[in-house]
Amino acid sequence: MTTSATTRPTGGGPSARYVLAIDQGTTSTRSIVFDQAGRLVAVRQHEHHQFFPQPGWVEHDAAEIWRNLRRLVPATLADAGIVAEQVAAVGIANQRETTVVWNRRTGEPIHRAIVWQDTRTAALMDSLGADPRAVEVVRRCGLPMAAYFSASRLRWLLENVPGARRRAEDGELLFGTMETWLIWNLTGGPDGGVHVTDVTNASRDMLMNIRTLQWDPQLLDFFDIPAAVLPEIRPSLEVYGLCRELVPGAPIAAALGDQQAALFGQTCFDAGDAKCTYGTGSFLLLNTGSELVNSSHGLIPTVAYQLAGEPPTYALEGSIAVTGSLVQWLRDGLGLISSAPEIETLARTVTDNGGCYVVPAFAGLFAPHWRGEARGVIAGLTSYVNKGHLARAVLEATGWQTREVIDAMNADSGLPIRALRVDGGMTANNLLMQFVADILDTPVVRPMMAETVSLGAAYAAGLSVGFWPDLASLRRNWHRAAQWTPSMDAALREREYENWKFAVTRTFGWVRDGSGTRPG
Ligand SMILES: Nc1ncnc2c1ncn2[C@@H]1O[C@H](COP(=O)(O)OP(=O)(O)O)[C@@H](O)[C@H]1O
Ligand SMILES: O=P(O)(O)OC[C@H](O)CO
């Protein structure tokens, strides 16, 4: 980091003993105040609307999210009993790949933000994937040709909002993921707002060269994106500007995609350190150090973080689209449970899955398969199977998807994962966490501080301004709350895994009308 406590541009003096983290997630936005010991002092959370205008389409109102934040931050500071001058730095973590375009003069979004789960551009990605240039595109951005990433959404907006392409070319419009949108608004919006993205978020756009960390003209040309609309790519730990809104004078000192923030909050700073965040979807990231590891097994090389003035630290990521949302489906879609935690009670009414496997390819499969045309199956159904077996199979689906990603990581990186650090809502489920330890044959550990995404954003911002001296001081704040030790019979584990893999093959090729994407 380049900015020390003494050279910090502003944001209070010795009384600035707190860091504010903003976690702009898929379902809600959180604002959290941390103290120097990494303790949570105050937290506020606000859900925003989910818009589903057509099957497979998911949108957010970026203006609503900004309005929510305007209410959340003052309330959180009041709860903590502090004023803006006591905030040493602000750090942002955000849902990644969600795409927003707005008018630089008025600050109005030209359309609702298109969310990372949205599959409207699957057919577009299919046709782009057939282009002979696609192989070089994949090599340059490091990502598979999938609708998950931002480029095809930005192109969709430019092509489908009347006049958008011309206005973008004329420099009237700005593009960003959620951190870009929030930083621009916090630093003044139309009145001098800073238009930047951090390198971890940019690494998910498909427009950045994963080696040079710059926008790549060949990628812009391939996706037909005018450069005028793009933010400046900056390190993740750097002072981007000072807040003019909400926390006047406080430096915005870090931004990270939320999964990278969780890796940071779990203090996975060494090559070989890995974490998995079990939420709506699940995201396993392995720190690969200064080395960019290309995957030949369906993982994504991504930027883990970059300190100002230093080379980046890379990670390999296994992104799983459906885990906690499968539990929600059991609750809301089937009505078999009335709350998510109840799944554990139901699953414990039986001792095994009764031969049943649920593969939740609701919108295709992400890592390591990347099959947009796959759809979900319940395999092995017999009249013996009851709702307890189904509940167990639903939980096991999260475990097996983790195992597939870990196997791919081992094959790609050669870095053996000695222990998996976990966080997220599903880690409250002991049966699931024991199952994960069993089928990975690896200890699974959960830290005391469960809010790893916000903590990562706070750590990064605090480190950036010298509020914390170094990575070692952060590591000392990590304390284990729970550990699950593997105890499953090896032969049983491998037999069950074979069954799972066979069930997965049953999902392939379901969508046959070209609306699914099969990335290269
Ligand atoms: N005890 C539990 N057992 C299994 N799943 C759970 C449990 N508690 C919460 N979940 C699941 O975890 C998800 C919420 O976790 P969270 O980390 O808040 O997700 P996100 O940050 O993606 O919104 C939901 O999808 C919910 O179904
Ligand atoms: O907001 P979350 O926690 O669901 O995370 C979403 C991921 O960043 C999508 O890539």
TrEMBL record:
Glycerol binds at R96, E97, Y148, D258, Q259. Residues 18-265 form the Carbohydrate kinase FGGY N-terminal domain. GO terms for molecular function: glycerol kinase activity. ADP binds at T26, R30, T280, G324, G425, N429. Its EC number is 2.7.1.30. Inhibited by fructose 1,6-bisphosphate (FBP). PANTHER family: GLYCEROL KINASE, SUGAR KINASE. This is Glycerol kinase. It comes from Jatrophihabitans lederbergiae. The gene is glpK.
